[in-house]
Amino acid sequence: GEDVEQSLFLSVREGDSSVINCTYTDSSSTYLYWYKQEPGAGLQLLTYIFSNMDMKQDQRLTVLLNKKDKHLSLRIADTQTGDSAIYFCALGGSNYQLIWGAGTKLIIKP
Amino acid sequence: DSGVTQTPKHLITATGQRVTLRCSPRSGDLSVYWYQQSLDQGLQFLIQYYNGEERAKGNILERFSAQQFPDLHSELNLSSLELGDSALYFCASSSGGGRTEAFFGQGTRLTVV
Hints:
By secondary structure, chain A is an all-beta fold. Chain A has no helices and eleven strands. Chain A has strands at about 5, 10-15, 20-25, 30-35, 45-50, 55-60, 60-65, 70-75, 85-90, 100, 105-110. In chain B, strands 2, 4, 5, 6, 9, 10 and 11 form a seven-stranded mixed β-sheet that branches. Classes of the chains: A mainly beta (about 110), B mainly beta (about 110). At the A-B interface, strand 4 and strand 5 of A face strand 5, strand 9 and strand 10 of B.
């Protein structure tokens, strides 16, 4: 079945850019999503990209999709302490299923 | 506010007991998903309902069951609870249409003692 992989941790300095990566095995997903989970909270939909797009920008967030390499990334520009969270990528699979990565914990160093 | 409501927010119960978690989806959403998130672990998909019918099953134990009612709210029943069932339980809803993005509730934190 579909497999989605993410690194478990990413540490960046405040003010730098963060790049969170996600690789997947099945390329049939129509939509690919990024969710953010702050400590003790539910998951919040951050952004998504349609599979026929290569890039989507939304303020400080840039999503890149490389279909050939089956690679999805989320870039957060000018990372702030409020960006500390776990970031999940999710792929819209068949039968309205979401296939989830394990989540990347973003740690901000002052 | 995602529009998805989960109750209760916190629940503490003893081993062997049974609890019911409740979820009200966003207005108009037909699909409800249940997830379990243990400490330091990712999301484990449990089960999905669409318009009252079970659509998909994930890693749901036989001691757990769920249902979706005609008004589209859903309940997750956890029985014969064990210490290892302590976790955050999330409900999410989606429209069930071509886009699959799900909107999450704040979760129910279950502690089994």
